[in-house]
Amino acid sequence: MQYTYLGKSGLKVSRLCLGTMNFGPETEEKDAFRIMDAAVDAGIQFFDTANVYGRDRKGWTEEIIGRWFKQGGGRREKVVLATKVYGDMQNDVDGPNADRGLSAYKIRRHLEASLKRLQTDHIELYQMHHIDRNVSWDELWGVFEGLVQQGTVDYIGSSNFAGWHIAVAQAEAKARHFLGLVSEQHLYNLLQRSAELEVLPAAQALGLGVIPWSPLSGGLLGRNALAGTGARSARSTEKLEQHREQLERFGALCRELGEKEDVVALAWLLTNPAVTAPIIGPRTLEQLEDSLRITEVELSNDVLTQLNEIFPGPGRPAPEAYSW
User: Fold this and answer.
1) Which of 3, 5, 75, 148 gives a 20 to 30 Å CA spacing to 14?
2) For residues 49 and 16, is the Cβ–Cβ distance under 8 A?
3) Within 10 Å of residue 296's Cβ, how many Cβ atoms?
4) Does 319 sit behind a cis peptide bond, omega within 30 degrees of 0 on the bond before it?
């Protein structure tokens, strides 16, 4: 496994991040335990979750990870743990403050609850799951500074932020002599490259590592996307038909390379210097094992050119992408 620094921080993380969103709703606890054990054995020590994961039973995924930590054997010590705050946890005790959003009140209470579910006393990376335009950065950086000083959180990250949100956040943090954001978790894959306009340049310029979520575009960039197996939602079917020609060309290229589509799609992300670690979300141990060789795959300049032709991005960052 390869490792790199998380943004401008001194924290080293694996180039693949284990996403746990399937743990509980899709993957039974005993199988989730096996996946996490195998990930650590393979050198993947960067785990991502969120307090809302668990679908109808929010918090379920964090509980599963907590019980895995509780087994001991150095499991907690071996993991760089990331979780998130923002979503509605459907907590009647908090009343309207349980709704989606961020506030000092909510962040403290939801962190306490996450720590309890995860059976740990600290989080390495605490991420805002979304921007909250109703809350000032004075309030946000005030509460996050306190959590860092207390030792319950080491670093702060964002998710689903626009480039200008990142810029404002970092400017406000600098004014307070605070480290600010060290990462941005963002939608980024071959089919969705709008992050190249402003988010990736902002992250690179301001010291954030980018953690792509949905790196396989909900399975469209996976090895079985065109196989026609399994039930699909109407939306998934529509997206498949919309991109069928591109996916057929992509499949042909991957066959020439002797690689599976998901391996190439993930390896492509790792060629971008802004990317720290794409999130892989295996539902089974076999899916995890298939992902492990991604960091060993090297894509030639010719292959990268062909991928750009199949999946054209904006071409350049903003504003050059759309101005003279």
Assistant:
1) 148
2) no
3) 10
4) yes
Name the pairing type of β-strands 12-14 and 279-280: unpaired
Helix boundaries (H) for 12-103: 29-41, 60-70, 75-78
CA within 13 Å, CB half, 299:
23
Q: Cα separation of 48 and 262, whole Å? A: 20
Burial class (CB in 10 A: 0-12, 13-18, 19+), 81: buried
Best CA proximity match to 143, nearest among 162, 128, 164 = 128
DSSP-derived secondary structure letter, 189: B
| Spatial distance between the Cα atoms of 315 and 322, rounded to a whole number of angstroms | 10
pLDDT digits (tens, 9 = 90+) for 42-84: 999 999 999 999 988 999 999 999 999 999 999 999 999 999 9
Provide CB contacts within 8 A for 300, sequence distance 6+. none
pLDDT tens column, 109-149: 999 999 999 999 999 999 999 999 999 999 999 999 999 99
- Judged against a pLDDT cut of 60, whether residue 318 lies above it is answered with yes
Give the three-class secondary structure for 232: coil
Q: Provide the mean pLDDT of the chain.
A: 93
d(Cα 86, Cα 241) in Å, to the nearest integer? 34
Which ranges of 155-243 does DSSP label H, i.e. alpha helix? 163-175, 199-206, 234-242
Residue 261 near residue 291 (C-beta atoms within 8 A): no
Where in the sequence numbering do the catalytic residues fall? Answer: 53
Which pLDDT band, with edges at 50, 70 and 90, does 231 fall under? low
Strand pairing partners for 17? 46, 279
Q: What are phi and psi of 4, to 5 degrees?
A: -150, 165
* Residue 214: both structure tokens together: 């949905």
Per-residue pLDDT for 229 more than 60? no
Whole-angstrom distance, CA of residue 203 vs CA of residue 195: 10
Let me know: does 37 contact 213? Beta carbons within 8 Å.
no
What's the rounded Cα separation, in Å, for the pair 48 and 168? Answer: 25
